[in-house]
């Protein structure tokens, strides 16, 4: 399904912006926002389900087009330049933002080796900081990262 959204005041756009800004909304709705085809592809590969996609055709990358071509029942919405600029957190990203369903994870299900390296994070405010920490955890082969 494809609809065109040209107003930043559209309810879907307002909801997406709330999901970007408010962790309370993310928790209550069980949804989160992913920006960029590469990041969306990684989330899909990790088993996350997409609720909906918002695409700006003028800058859509090949990878983003590939993701859209592989969709079956997921809604996607074409957005205007004005709307995309309001949604886009990063500059130069490839024309795609997705709302994804969060997984229900529990510490009880976490299986760790003996003497595991577990990193616990609380109150991370900037996505870039979280990204840097995750890359560092990957480099040191951390067994788990828990984000509160």
What's this model, at a glance?
This protein is of the alpha/beta class and 148 residues long.
Report what the structure shows.
The protein is an alpha/beta fold and 148 residues long. The strands form two sheets. A five-stranded mixed β-sheet has the order 1-4-3-5-2, sandwiched between helices. It contains six helices and seven strands, in the order βααβαβαβαββαβ.
| Gap from first CA to last CA | 35 Å
User: What would you call the shape?
Assistant: elongated
Task: Please state the average pLDDT score.
Answer: 89
Unreliable stretches covering 5 or more consecutive residues: none
Instruction: Please estimate the helix content.
Output: 25-40%
Radius of gyration: 17 Å
Structural class: alpha/beta
Largest sheet, strands/sense/barrel: 5 strands, mixed
Count the beta strands.
Answer: 7
Q: How much strand content do the residues show?
A: 15-25%
Spell out the key features of this protein:
148 residues, alpha/beta, two-stranded parallel sheet, 6 helices, 7 strands, 23% strand, elongated
Helices and strands in order:
Blueprint: E1 2-5, H1 11-21, H2 23-29, E2 31-35, H3 37-45, E3 50-55, H4 62-69, E4 75-79, H5 81-87, E5 96-101, E6 118-121, H6 127-139, E7 144-147
Parallel strand pairs: 1-4, 3-4, 6-7
Antiparallel strand pairs: 2-5, 3-5
């Amino acid at each position: 399904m494809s609809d065109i959204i040209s107003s930043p005041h559209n309810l879907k756009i307002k909801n997406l912006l709330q999901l970007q800004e408010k962790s309370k909304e993310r928790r209550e709705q069980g949804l989160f926002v992913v920006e960029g085809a590469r990041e969306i592809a990684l989330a899909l590969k990790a088993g996350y389900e997409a609720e909906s996609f918002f695409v700006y055709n003028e800058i859509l990358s090949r990878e983003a087009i590939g993701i859209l071509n592989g969709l079956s029942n997921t809604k996607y919405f074409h957005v205007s330049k004005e709307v995309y600029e309001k949604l886009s957190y990063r500059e130069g990203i490839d024309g795609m933002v997705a709302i994804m369903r969060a997984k229900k994870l529990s510490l009880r299900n976490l299986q760790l080796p003996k003497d595991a390296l577990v990193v616990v994070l609380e109150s991370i405010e900037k996505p870039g900081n979280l990204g840097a920490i995750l890359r560092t955890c990957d480099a040191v082969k951390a067994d788990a990262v828990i984000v509160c």
